[in-house]
Amino acid sequence: WRAVSAERLLSQIDNTLNKVSIALVKAQSIERDRTRKPVEILNYQRDLYGKLLQLQGLRRTLVASKYELAKMMNIPPSTPFKVVVPDDLPELPSLAVGVAELEDQALLRRAELVEQTLQERIARDEIHKSIARMFPGLELSGDRGYSSNSYLLYNQWSEFSLKMTWNLMNIVSGWDDISQAEMQRDLVIITRQSLGMAVIGQVDLAHMDYSEALEAFQTAKRIEEINRKIEFHSKNESEALNMGDLDIIQIQLNTLLSQMKKDEQYALLQNALGRLAVSTGEYPFDGLDDGEAIDKLSGEIGTREGNWLKSAWFKPMPGPGAATATSAATRTPANAAPVSILPSAAAASGASPAGAGAREVQFAAYRQEKQAAQLVDRLKAAHADLFAPLTTAIQPATVNGATFYRVRATGLASLEAASALCAQFRIRSVDCMVVR
Question: Which pTM was predicted?
Answer without folding.
Answer: 0.60
